[in-house]
Design a protein that fits this description.
Blueprint: H1 3-8, H2 50-68, H3 72-79, H4 83-94
Helix pairs in contact: 2-4, 3-4
């Protein structure tokens, strides 16, 4: 490759999409991006859209906390999170920053 050819080649970031191999592998929501029902891609959301899943989980944790009592170790084991996470979730609900029926 000559020096002139190197200068005329476009860097990878400037290439057109037609010239780049794109594998539409989808995600947990849909098997492919072209068939996805979401208006906005979950990968465009902060942390990959984990916020919605965490809100649902947090509401379940708080409901379990109210039903089973403050057995933090059991809740942490049952939901697969740390004891500190259980304390944070309970505090958010108690302070009114979240509601258990909002999820």
């Amino acid at each position: 490759m000559t020096v002139r050819e190197k200068q005329t080649r476009l860097p990878m970031v400037d290439r057109l999409p037609e010239h780049v191999h794109y594998a539409d592998s989808g995600c947990q929501v849909a098997p492919s991006c072209l068939n996805c029902p979401l208006q906005r891609c979950r990968y465009e959301e902060p942390e990959g859209g984990k916020g919605a899943a965490h809100r649902v989980r947090d509401a379940e944790v708080y409901r379990a906390y109210l039903q089973h009592g403050p057995d933090i170790r059991w809740l942490a084991t049952h939901f697969g999170v740390s004891r500190r996470t259980i304390h944070r979730i309970v505090r958010r609900f108690r302070e009114g920053r979240e509601r258990p029926d909002a999820a």
